[in-house]
Amino acid sequence: GAGVSQSPRYKVTKRGQDVALRCDPISGHVSLYWYRQALGQGPEFLTYFNYEAQQDKSGLPNDRFSAERPEGSISTLTIQRTEQRDSAMYRCASSTKVGRGNEQYFGPGTRLTVT
Amino acid sequence: AQRVTQPEKLLSVFKGAPVELKCNYSYSGSPELFWYVQYSRQRLQLLLRHISRESIKGFTADLNKGETSFHLKKPFAQEEDSAMYYCALINRGNQGGKLIFGQGTELSVKP
């Protein structure tokens, strides 16, 4: 079946603009995760959902970042008033069920560049 | 604090040589360790996890709690092994599956 998809794949935006990044998980996957990866670094956790409930948002760097998953499927990560330091690869992953250690399937990522 | 350290940013070996990618971790509970791999122009994917004690594509990794290490090994490297490798952990004490990644090691296998 289809894997995790993310859109757009590339986004260039001007400083101060808002952006919305979309993640479409594997059908039926309960858990959805967002990570951010700066150049030369490993992915860094941002937030995750079980169904539509946001379980942990401790990784969101500040209140310009928010995420939602209103129907327990597609999720949107929104960055308001973008800054150049927000430039990174944003990765989404999903897993089959609630709980620790279940394999996370990653999407292709969205490369965000803030100019 | 949970942390994963991969001391080598780049590891370059010749085809057929043994390879070891180092991973050390710190934890405040009982971790579960993983290796993820990203081949060129592909997405990040799970290579292996310590609880499975399996060998994938000839790679193995043993959890050493005394040394807090989870090094990835392969006796004979192949050119197709060239990729970015990330070590990661989940703390079993947490709800959910938040992964904590190391910085990654780029493996380059030369012909």
Structure in words:
The complex is a heterodimer of chains A (115) and B (111). Chain A has strands at 5-7, 10-13, 19-24, 31-37, 44-50, 53-56, 65-68, 75-79, 88-95, 105-106, 110-114. Chain A has 115 residues and is mostly beta strands. In chain A, strand 5 and strand 6 form a beta hairpin. Chain A is globular, with a radius of gyration of 13 Å. Chain A starts with a strand and ends with a strand. Chain B is built from no helices and 11 strands. In chain B, strands 2, 5, 6, 9, 10 and 11 form a 6-stranded mixed sheet that branches. A 3-stranded antiparallel sheet of chain B has the order 3-8-7, with no helix packed on it. The mean pLDDT of chain B is 91. In chain B, strand 9 and strand 10 form a beta hairpin. By secondary structure, chain B is mainly beta.
What are the SSEs and their pairings?
The complex is a heterodimer of chains A (115) and B (111).
Chain A: E1 5-7, E2 10-13, E3 19-24, E4 31-37, E5 44-50, E6 53-56, E7 65-68, E8 75-79, E9 88-95, E10 105-106, E11 110-114
Parallel strand pairs in A: 2-11
Antiparallel strand pairs in A: 1-3, 3-8, 4-5, 4-9, 5-6, 7-8, 9-10, 9-11
Chain B: E1 3-5, E2 10-14, E3 19-21, E4 24-26, E5 31-38, E6 45-49, E7 60-61, E8 72-74, E9 83-91, E10 100-101, E11 105-110
